[in-house]
Q: What sequence folds into this?
């Protein structure tokens, strides 16, 4: 199934929640949304099913209850979403993203070290 790149804010929140805690049930997500956003169970179900139809989630019936998991690892999922954002929103140029990181992002020392490592790795590929 081809993954659809269009992911809204509520979908993104649920994708992150599922990726961090999978496998999860609609009830798990509904409880999270009730606590954090005041949403009801049907909202969780509708969003999770939409994500499944878009190809981001898969589900498996265990003892009569569907359990949802991401189709890809969290790393691959986030990389794909960033790639889609760069291509669709930034016209394929990473310069605005890098400028944001340099000027506005608040990075931890660990995040900065990881970025340096990735840039060095990119340089070696060239």
A:
């Amino acid at each position: 199934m081809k993954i659809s790149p269009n992911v809204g804010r509520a979908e993104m929140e649920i994708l992150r929640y599922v990726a961090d805690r999978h496998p999860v049930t609609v009830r798990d997500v509904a409880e999270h949304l009730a606590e954090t956003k005041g949403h009801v169970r049907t909202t969780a179900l509708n969003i999770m099913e939409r994500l499944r139809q878009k190809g981001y989630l898969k589900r498996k019936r265990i003892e009569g209850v569907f359990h949802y998991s991401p189709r890809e690892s969290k790393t691959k999922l986030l990389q794909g979403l960033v790639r889609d954002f760069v291509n669709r929103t930034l016209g394929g140029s990473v310069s605005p993203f890098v400028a944001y990181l340099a000027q506005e992002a608040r990075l931890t020392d660990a995040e900065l070290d990881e970025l340096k490592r990735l840039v060095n790795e990119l340089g070696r590929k060239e």
Observations:
- The chain has a mean pLDDT of 88.
- The longest strand covers residues 57-62.
